[in-house]
Design a protein that fits this description.
A 6-stranded parallel β-sheet has the order 3-4-2-1-5-6, with helices on both faces. The chain has a 6-stranded parallel β-sheet with strand order 9-8-7-13-14-15. It has a 3-stranded antiparallel β-sheet with strand order 11-10-12. α2 crosses α3 and α11 packs parallel to α12. The radius of gyration is 23 Å and the shape is elongated. The C terminus is likely disordered. The longest helix has 15 residues. By secondary structure, the chain is of the alpha/beta class. The protein is built from 15 helices and 15 strands. α4 links the parallel β3 and β4.
Amino acid sequence: MRTIDDLLGEQDLRGRRVLVRSDLNVPLDDQGRITDDGRVRASVPTIAALTEAGARVVVCAHLGRPKGSPEQKYSLAPVAERLGELLGRPVALAEDTVGESARAVVDGLQDGQVALLENLRFNPGETSKDDAERGAFADQLASLADLYVSDGFGVVHRKQASVYDVARRLPHVAGTLVQAEVDVLQRLTHDPARPYVVVLGGAKVSDKLGVIESLLTTADKLLIGGGMAFTFLKAQGYEVGRSLLEQDQLDPVRGYLQQAAERGVEILLPTDVVAATEFAADAEHEVVPADAIPADRLGLDIGPESARAFAAAVEGAKTVFWNGPMGAFEMVPYADGTAAVAKALVAATRAGAFTVVGGGDSAAAIRQLGFADDDFSHISTGGGASLEYLEGKELPGLSVLEDSGPVSGGKE
């Protein structure tokens, strides 16, 4: 896989139009303000390197889940403003993706300037399952540039026009972020320093079935928290009250528990939980044993005993991968378990362990709880992409970059 370093080392980019696929899918509040700019900050190194080399940079990205047509609440306008602040230069925002505004904005770029196209998912071709429809949109995107840089790691597991099809139409390289993410994941999958501890949380076991099966062959310990823990507890014969439960996953989970025992992989489950009467911050709640959750309550966090056990396992590790919060961290009464795991990762990092926070809600949680990015070895921008990589799946947005041809492409 060729990288932006190859591109910068081989070519004079002055006058060249470079299309950069970034991941700028950030959370917004009700007023349209960015609440976590981590992905925007992660996109800066690649864009800055290109502008400093004199390229005319055309950034494309998506935000949210619009249904193939423009929706104001999903506009990238707040992102353009924040990106400009971080780059220290204005970022022109096109009013569309491949229409008249996009062409005018791109045509108006001078060397070292940056434009951002409006939300890719305002166009049905971006996410279409029809190769022809997706390809037609990719043709329009590709016509805006001479070269393509893939830097949106959070979407490389999607076979989408801006991720996969454009790379088949333009000379292409991986950006700084994609390169860094792949390097980290290779370190997790190829002879990780041991003990190797994986912490999995979040709502659903079904979202992580494949990666659990894969990790049973590589990890030394699996710590299971969050909503998914209750399916594991139920599989062991415990009643879980009104807690989140995937009944149809009980047999696979029993199989994983058996495999773990056969392979000598330790699975740690909560021994106590914070059980509430409702999914609400002001609901009545108490700490109860994991095998004695009242029938009228639902578990919303791991309890203090579990938090101590999880923290001890993390602090004793040489490699840690964490994906998914331990509870409903957005609400203060149920944030302690996630905070305990985060503190343990910080301690492990300071002790020399390689610690990776696997994107998505985990990254949002650590920032909301007041931890700094550099408290950890790496914070991924792509939770789903990271999990699929660790599962051993082929990621379309990476496989399409794996050709060895020279980076080339003439000016128009």
